[in-house]
Design goal:
mainly alpha
């Protein structure tokens, strides 16, 4: 996953999490949180891969 896709996934997850919280929908809130964390993991993996290519 590229850094840009990971950032987009984080943003989408945050929006879903916020909407779930506003509507008191715990399932949507949890899905958003999981999506946001998945995006963070993808971003970290992408950064690590870039560092490995440089060395």
């Amino acid at each position: 996953m590229s850094k840009a896709k990971a950032k987009a996934k984080q943003a989408k997850g945050k929006m879903k999490e916020t909407a779930g919280s506003a509507m008191d929908d715990k399932r949507m809130e949890a899905e958003g949180s999981a999506e946001r964390m998945s995006g963070k993991a993808g971003e970290t993996a992408s950064k690590t891969a870039e560092k490995m290519k440089r060395h």
